[in-house]
Design goal:
The structure holds two protein chains of two kinds.
Chain A: H1 3-23, H2 33-42, H3 50-64, H4 71-83, H5 97-120, H6 126-155
Chain B: H1 4-27, H2 31-56, H3 58-63, H4 65-101, H5 105-122, E1 126-132, E2 140-143, E3 156-159, E4 162-170, E5 175-179, E6 186-191, E7 197-202, E8 208-214, E9 224-227, E10 239-247, E11 254-261, E12 270-273
Antiparallel strand pairs in B: 1-2, 1-12, 2-5, 3-4, 3-12, 4-5, 6-7, 6-9, 7-8, 8-11, 9-10, 10-11
Helix pairs in contact in B: 4-5
Classes of the chains: A mainly alpha, B alpha+beta.
Chain lengths: 162, 304
């Protein structure tokens, strides 16, 4: 997909994440749409540009978030790089790998955010945050991932779109 | 799209850029970039947030749009008004008690009511909430007022229901507000009925808790918690929340309690930024006679 199309689309996704998603939170938990997009891109065939998606989405989220600037860029670029890792090319598209990737991605993102917060912003209650925020978020993201994954596969299916 | 040979160094460069952004942000070099980004995103954010509020209200709107919206607004206004009245009545009760106890209280009382009522009306600038923090780990808002409108770091942010947070970052046309439910937020507070002091802090999951309330002070479920004004960061007597569960252990110096925030943080559309107030400390006012609480007694347990 052309960068000129990708940038505004991902900017819209970030805006959606910080305006609509909080209004649609489930049991107080906001869906990580941006994270799901990066994972859905990374686990798809030819998803080697997932880290670019992570970089762009992370940059947009950083502008809106109260976390130190660079936190989400770092987290989502890392998630994009992990999901697009060459060693995983054999299992890419596998129906077990996809949810597992979502769980690992949520954990990675939260670990990066919490680490940055503990270094630059405030003390972090690691156990409680990982148990009561990260775990439910990972489950929620995994359950909702198909809603993002399948339309994205359909959207990106045409090789001419690249 | 990217061959693996090109990709690895590129990923490292991008990750380094992320780290560099973190460092530059700490130094404050990235403020102009944030301003520029907000200048571009703000109209979209404002429009999208307005639309999202509409979406959140959709089920009600489908039934009987105009009547239900009008009724909801009317009821909300009534609730707000009754809450304020209830707070004032309780304050007046408190005031009455103090007057009976303290002969010299009358003079101090002139300011008492004025301060409570004027806090919200003095600067009626309403800032529109344009976005919420995208993460489950942080509790921030972005509002559409910045240094161009006179907003400064540390200014308290209120709603008619009570205290919402304080400004932690200011751009030209935007500001980020740290909500009181964020774990990094601390607000000096008092229990309204007994004037016992404590510190209200946010928790990792977006709840409120009041800590460091002396063991001897009476605190019950349903007690209102107000800002104390200690430290001068917030005006006194802003409603923070209501006690829902007190946790007290004999072996500890302090007791603590869970609070129900007075503000519904999930549905914030407009907030008030308090640009000027006279700092004063509620604890310097004459205190009511503390309610006597029975000392915990140990009943000997029969040996097994």
């Amino acid at each position: 997909m052309s960068l000129w199309l990708l940038i505004p689309l991902l900017a819209l996704a970030a805006i959606f994440q910080s305006t609509f998603i909080p209004a649609l939170s489930i049991a107080g938990f906001k869906l990580d749409l941006a994270l799901m997009l990066v994972v859905a891109r990374g686990v798809a065939p030819r998803g080697d540009d997932a880290f670019v998606w992570g970089l762009l989405l992370g940059s947009f989220l950083d502008i809106i978030s109260g976390a130190p600037l660079g936190t989400f860029t770092l987290a989502l670029t890392l998630v994009g790089a992990l999901t697009a890792w060459n060693a995983l090319s054999g299992v890419r598209g596998n129906l077990v790998f996809i949810p597992a990737a979502m769980v690992v991605a949520t954990l990675t993102q939260h670990l990066v955010v919490l680490t940055v917060l503990s270094l630059f912003a405030r003390p972090v209650d690691w156990n409680a945050s990982l148990l009561f925020i990260t775990l439910p978020s990972a489950i929620l993201n995994t359950v909702v991932l198909p809603v993002v994954y399948f339309p994205m596969q359909w959207l990106l299916r045409d090789p001419r779109a690249y | 799209m990217y061959s693996s040979r090109n990709r690895t160094p590129l990923i490292f460069v991008l990750l380094l850029l992320g780290l560099a952004a973190l460092v530059l942000y700490q130094i404050g070099f990235l403020q102009p970039i944030e301003d520029l980004a907000f200048l571009l995103l703000q109209p979209l954010l404002g429009g999208a947030h307005g639309l999202s509020t509409g979406v959140a209200n959709l089920p009600a709107t489908l039934e009987d749009p105009n009547a239900l919206r009008a009724r909801a607004l009317e009821l909300q206004a009534q609730v707000d008004s009754l809450k304020t009245q209830s707070l004032r009545v309780r304050e007046l009760e408190q005031e009455n008690l103090l007057l009976r106890q303290q002969l010299g209280y009358k003079q101090a009382n002139t300011d008492f009511e004025l301060a409570g009522a004027a806090v919200l009306d003095r600067h009626p600038d309403r800032a529109r909430v344009i976005a919420q923090d995208p993460s489950n780990l942080l509790y921030y808002l972005v509002v559409d007022q910045g240094s161009a409108q006179g907003v400064k770091l540390g200014m308290p942010v209120l709603t008619p229901q009570g205290l919402a947070g304080r400004v932690t970052q200011v751009g030209t046309q935007w500001a980020k507000v740290l909500l009181i439910i964020d774990p990094s937020s601390s607000v000096n507070a008092v229990v309204q009925s007994t004037r016992a002091t404590g510190v209200v802090q946010g928790t990792f999951n977006g709840q409120l808790v009041i800590r460091y309330v002396p063991q001897g002070a009476a605190m019950r479920d349903g007690d209102l918690i107000l800002t104390s004004g200690i430290g001068g960061n917030f005006p006194k007597r802003l409603v923070v929340g209501q006690v829902t569960q007190v946790r007290k252990r004999d072996i500890e110096l302090f007791q603590e309690a869970d609070l129900q925030p007075s503000v519904d943080f999930t549905r914030l559309e407009f907030v008030l930024i308090l640009k000027k107030f006279t700092p004063s400390d509620i604890t310097l006012e004459p205190t009511p006679t503390p309610t006597a609480i029975p000392r915990p007694t140990r009943t000997p347990t029969p040996s097994q």
